[in-house]
Amino acid sequence: AVLVESLLVFTMVLLVHAVVWDRFSWCAVALAIQAFYVQFKWDRLLQLGGAVFQFRGAANSGLLPASMVMPLLGVVMKERCRAAGIVYFERFGIVVASTGMLLALFLSVLAVGITKPVPTNTCILTGIAGSVIIYTMKHSLTVSEVIEVLEVLLIFVYLSMILLYLLPRCFTPGEALLVLGGVSFVLNQLIKRSLNVIEGRGDPIDFFLLVAVVGVILLGLFFTVLFIFMDSGTWISSMFFHMMTAVLGLGVIMPWLYRLIHRNPLFWLLQFLFQTQTRLYLLVYWTFLAASACGVVFYQNAKRASESKKHQASTITRKYFHFIVVATYVPGLIYDRQLLYVAAVLCLAVFIFLEYVRYFRIKPFGQTLRHLLSLFLDERDSGPLILTHIYLLLGMSLPVWLFPRSCAPKGTLPGAGA
């Protein structure tokens, strides 16, 4: 299965770069080859329990496909925007590709460094890939872009040390690369845009995802550290949790978003959601689908309660949720892509917030959520967090978030200079 997965990844890399072969193509091929070797070494580390962090061990490391995601996205963005004549986003695509390559290379070096005995051939391949990537970055990036890439790498290192230590067995190395790399890039972009914001410039939608992701991550980090020193399952902790959530949301996130979009975020959101009749119909339809998903959860738990033996949700039952997700996204893509963008961001924030409530056992719903969702656990949720539904949402939403609107000639794309 791993070899088939690797073959598919190599095929995808070659197909993408066959359209336009440039210096980044050599980097991608070199990175893919060395990631394949490193993945083999890291899989053995996971099986032997020799990894520095406690990664999720129920699957392979997934390092090869994860290493290719950001570089390929960056290359595709670069070529699409070059064809459309959008210089800003063409450069942005180059930064995305370079950042993805550097993060993947860093994780590969980490894997090689903790492998005993040190694998000579893999070290040579990693050195060659690193040299090619650094040489390409030197001749492709400006000084400010190099600094931006290094900033993302620094944030990635800190987040890796914090989250992988506090939340063991929640991620495979590949998942850690994608999740923490994405969060690091978003955080860096938000800081950059906040420092360089210009009044009246940019579409509020372009900032909504950045602020939402950073907000929920900061909330999680704050309470993870706080509940080390106090019991999270008491009513006092529950009151403190909700109070501090309100303080962070109304006192930090809302003013931050106001500074970026120069209007009241709540008023803008309400106006956006109910702007057209089509959006009202979509919201009603999505509410019905959400209620249906909740109905499946309650029905399966009622079924478990009525049976004498322990009942676990089957694979077919999980496919119901896949069907609901597809039924959610298809009308959004057809009728209102921007509404789907905002709704997916809100859904992500709600999912993560509910996971905080479940994980910290926040009264009155924390223990109830634990009981309801335990029915759907499998080997992929071996850690303290339940992430499969969040991964499903991310997988469906990333194309919408990355390309919220079609490429257009420079000057017609909102926020191009943000």
- State the end-to-end distance: 43 Å
* SSE series: HHHHHHHHHHHHHHH
Strand percentage lies at: under 5%
Question: What does the radius of gyration come to?
Answer: 22 Å
Biggest sheet character: none
Please work out how many helical segments DSSP would assign: 15
Number of strands: 0
Total discrete domains: 2
Mean pLDDT, to the nearest integer, reads: 82
Shape verdict: globular
Spans where pLDDT lies below 50 across 5 or more residues: 409-418
State the helicity in percent bands: over 70%
Give the class from helix and strand content and strand pairing.
mainly alpha
Characterise the protein shown here.
Its EC number is 2.7.1.108. Its main location: endoplasmic reticulum. Keywords: Endoplasmic reticulum, Kinase, Membrane, Transferase, Transmembrane, Transmembrane helix. With 418 residues, the chain is mainly alpha-helical. Helix content is 76%, strand content 0%. The chain folds into 2 domains: 1-196, no CATH class; 211-404, no CATH class. It has helices at 2-19, 23-48, 63-84, 87-113, 120-140, 143-166, 173-195, 204-226, 235-261, 265-273, 277-306, 315-335, 337-360, 366-373, 388-402.
